[in-house]
Amino acid sequence: MAGMPQARSRPAADAEQAIVKAILRGTYPPGGTLPAERALAQRLGVTRPTLREALQRLHRDGWLVIRQGKGTRVNDYWRHGGLNVLGALARSAEGVPRGFVAMLLEVRCVLAPAYASAAVARAAKTVAALLESGQAVPDAPHDFAQFDWSLHHTLAVESGNPIYALILNGFEGFYDTMALRYFGRPEGRASSRAFYAELGAAARRRDAQRAERVTRNAMERSLALWKRIEGRPA
Question: Rounded to an integer, what distance in angstroms lies between the CA atom of residue 101 and that of residue 232?
């Protein structure tokens, strides 16, 4: 099959990735079925036990529904997929719809104020120290992208709820790429630098409510700017 590796022995993780790419390209659309196990294993260059392992992983994550005797059906992954589906979409250049980043930023508008507030309540000194160092971040996209990731990851970890960090970790590579576009705009860097100063002031005062408020405002500004970058109405 065009676009899918042939006749090479590969582990289950590689077979899993190849099937996901084929789904995102539309080779196997939602609602359709995968080829029979023997044929698919040959196309991927793997053994049938290896293919079964890959299919079980994809079933677990919500990409597929395995039906004994009826073939394997491709799921509507937007409706039934789990966090691993989001991570795969973030790592893929295929099948990601226009507006995907804006969707993520809309979710961040909800999550970030919560984990920022909790982090300030639990670890104000740690947050304040990090933000103080952020005022010296060079005015360059790469440096801002690195610091911003470090800040959000620290806030998520220090919030005391490990689920926040797990969610962020799934998007680390994707974040690097998109953040460079965002921080490539002078207004993006200026807005974030103001946010770091405001959040730092809240952390120094151990004011969790203020931390939540300034974070929400900053996340809403970043979403509006990203929509302008994409050419969408804010």
Answer: 12
